[in-house]
From TrEMBL:
It comes from Xenopus laevis. Residues 682-693 have a biased composition (Basic and acidic residues). Residues 577-640 form the BZIP domain. This is Endoplasmic reticulum membrane sensor NFE2L1. Residues 412-450 have a biased composition (Low complexity).
DNA sequence: GTCAAATGTCATTGG
DNA sequence: CCCCAATGACATTTG
């Protein structure tokens, strides 16, 4: 077993993979003796995680969606792609043309059936056209391909020969996998393709044959009957590279894709390959040959980066969270607040200067040191909390509301859509603003909408939004505009159809270049889907021999439509079908527009909510700054108060006791000294000073 | 086989 | 009354 594994791993398998990467499907398990485990278990060991990479289905299908980005196939796929890239890079260095030569080197054993594609006699036990009905089942690949391998044989060299033989024959019909073969079977078009292969009297010299189905030139060369090794100079070109690329696509020619799209796909494939060598040095992920797969990778990257970027940028709070919950309360007070409250009856200076909760004791601190202390203590975070507390005090906020507000400010998102709607809370006003804006926007956007289609509508929305101050709108506007084109306009431009069918709505594109692969991928899927859907009514129309196109049926104005109907003698059933087609077609477009509009509305509302949240946060920040400014003014006033009070002297030249007297501001700007005790209420005016600062 | 998303289709409404 | 767009609800397709 070990020797077998080593042999297979180091020689045959690598070669097989190489050939396989060129588009030749091969099922190695079918070449193993039946008592051996499947090949992948020989190589990798038993694992249920192993799944065979569907290179050929990837290449055989022009869209290439067979490999999911998360598939475990991808590792092997990329590794193989890398190897293939090396091979092709090598090819570019040595051969100026875009040609890959695959050399088949094998030793023919005497008496064995030395069969190459061109010289294989038609003695195979099962002919191609009479192969089994389950071509996809493992173990039948040989029979389907007309192989003469003997599965029960344990002669490895013979298996090797058979294997290479099969490879050789597969090379000749390059890129034709089992699925393709199945298609051919269904269409009964494969006789002329395979006929030469079955012809044992085929001349041994090189012959150029034209594939009857694809028109592809196939250069077939005989294997030397006598050679032990085929020299490189003698070895025929199995296929040029264009064939390698072309054949999987051309194998689909009988499908629904038209010739134009085939060529588009082919050219894109070639372009991607041309870029491959360059890009491979930069990013291993770009080793991918298959454009759709590469798009998948890009899609994932784009989606990840896009999402992360968006969430970070869109949801970054504009207001820094409060950092320290420790007591920010400066010891402002040098007086008992109750005394101040009782004595400063004329104005509410006490409330401004000494919030009641801050000073309950009458301890006197040095007035002159207070501002310095404050400046040290009152950093931004502390003042923010002060602001909240004052907000709670001055605006009637309950402590709960204040804490809720702080939670909102602390939250990273800044987006609390269902936030606490107290009548005083900003979110309440926000929601009302939001609803009013949305209603106005929708009315202005949608009421003027006529039959002109949806794109104009979207652009109107975009215009409106761009007039606003939303910094994020351009991204979404681009996005919405891309998603709202009329798809019928691009129905005949396969590579433009993505414009109308971008369903990656939740990903805000960062750059158009990154957008491109995503929408392209979607476009292909969409194209296929639309083709199929359009084909349904199309086929009904064809079946009923409707003499004009569905496009006309659907898109013609009523008058012209009626004229068209009048021009033909149509049966009742035909008329019914035509009306159905028209109704369905119009409704289909209407539904698409409706959904896009709905989506745009949602996106716009989302933008609006974000914008209002930013606005709210900015206003909250502004409010905090105002409160801080107010706090500074209070401190300044307090400082001046202390300074003035300390300079006052009574008749005896002694300073007034702050416990017994207090300064008071009057409405006309003067300051009076009043006793604090109740019996001095009648106001012994000790001093009067005009202070106009 | 199940599920979610996308899309198609039908019925209804209102302009 | 007819035409048509819009839309909710359900069906179908697809990955």
């Amino acid at each position: 077993m070990l020797s077998l594994k080593k042999y297979l791993t180091e020689g045959l398998i690598q070669f097989t993979i190489l050939l396989s990467l060129m588009g030749v499907r091969l099922d190695l398990d079918s070449y193993l003796p039946s008592h051996l485990p499947p090949l992948h278990e020989i190589i990798l060991g038993p694992t249920s995680a192993y799944t065979q990479t569907q290179f050929h289905s990837l290449r055989g299908t022009s869209d290439g969606y067979g490999v999911h980005p998360k598939s475990v196939d991808l590792d092997q796929f990329f590794t193989s792609r890398r190897l293939l890239g090396c091979v092709r890079a090598l090819d570019r260095l040595t051969v100026p043309s875009t040609e890959v030569d695959a050399w088949l080197v094998h030793r023919e054993t005497e008496g064995s059936v030395s069969q190459t594609g061109s010289s294989r006699p038609s003695d195979s036990p099962q002919d191609l056209t009479s192969s089994g009905s389950e071509p996809n089942r493992d173990g039948q690949g040989l029979e389907e391909l007309g192989a003469t391998a003997q599965p029960g044989s344990s002669d490895l060299s013979k298996e090797d020969i058979d294997l290479i033989d099969i490879l050789w024959r597969q090379d000749i019909d390059l890129g034709v996998g089992r699925e393709d073969f199945e298609n051919r079977q269904q269409q009964n078009e494969n006789e002329e393709v395979w006929e030469p292969l079955r012809d044992g009297a085929e001349p041994l010299e090189a012959a150029v044959q034209v594939d009857g189905e694809t028109g592809e030139s196939i250069r077939q060369f005989p294997a030397s009957d006598t050679s032990a090794l085929v020299d490189a100079e003698q070895c025929p070109v199995v296929s040029n590279r264009t064939d390698l690329l072309l054949s999987p696509l051309l194998a689909d020619m009988s499908g629904t894709l038209d010739l134009e799209q085939q060529w588009q796909d082919l050219m894109s494939l070639v372009d991607m390959q041309a870029m491959e060598v360059d890009s491979s040095a930069e990013d291993p992920l770009y080793l991918s040959l298959d454009p759709p797969l590469q798009q998948d990778v890009n899609l994932d990257q784009a989606s990840l980066s896009g999402c992360s970027h968006n969430t970070s940028s869109l949801f970054t709070p504009t207001l820094e969270p409060f950092s320290t919950p420790e007591s920010p309360v400066p010891q402002l007070s040098s007086h008992n607040s109750t005394d101040l409250n009782s004595t400063f009856g004329f104005t509410n200076l006490t409330g401004l200067l000494f919030p009641s909760q801050l000073n309950n004791t009458g301890n006197i601190t040095s007035p002159t040191t207070m501002p310095d202390t404050l400046s040290g203590l009152l950093d931004e975070a502390l003042l923010d909390e002060i602001s909240l507390m004052e907000l709670a005090l001055e605006e009637g906020f309950s402590q709960v509301q204040a804490s809720q507000l702080q939670e909102e400010l602390d939250s990273d998102s800044g987006l609390s859509l269902d936030s606490h709607h107290s009548p005083l809370s900003p979110s309440g006003s926000e929601s009302s603003t939001s609803s009013s804006c949305s209603s106005s926007s929708s009315s202005s956007s949608f009421s003027e909408e006529g039959a002109v289609g949806y794109s104009s509508d979207s652009e109107m929305i975009e215009l409106e939004e761009s007039e606003g101050a939303s910094g994020y709108q351009p991204q979404y506007s681009k996005f919405c505009r891309m998603s709202s084109q009329d798809p019928s306009r691009f129905r005949h431009l396969p590579f433009l159809e993505h414009v109308g069918h971008n369903h990656t709505y939740n990903m805000a594109p960062e750059e158009p270049e990154e957008m491109q692969p995503i929408v392209e991928k979607n476009s292909r899927r969409q194209a296929g889907f639309l083709d199929r859907q359009a084909g349904r009514d199309e086929q009904r129309a064809k079946a009923m021999k409707i003499p004009f196109t569905n496009d006309k049926i659907i898109n013609l104005p009523v008058e012209e439509f009626n004229d068209l109907l009048a021009k033909y003698q149509l049966s009742e059933a035909q008329l019914c079908l035509i009306r159905d087609i028209r109704r369905r077609g119009k409704n289909k477009m209407a539904a698409q527009n409706c959904r896009k509009r709905k989506l745009d509305t949602i996106l716009n509302l989302e933008q609006e909510v974000k914008h209002l949240n930013r606005e709210r946060n900015s206003q909250l920040r502004e409010k905090g700054e105002n409160l801080r400014s107010l706090q500074r003014m209070k401190q300044e006033v307090e400082h001046l108060y202390q300074e003035v009070f300390s300079q006052l002297r009574d008749q005896n030249g002694r300073p007034y006791s702050p416990q017994q007297y207090a300064l008071h501001y009057t409405s006309n700007g003067s300051v009076i000294l009043t006793p604090r005790n109740a019996d001095g209420q009648q106001g012994r005016r000790a001093e009067r000073k005009d202070r106009r600062k």
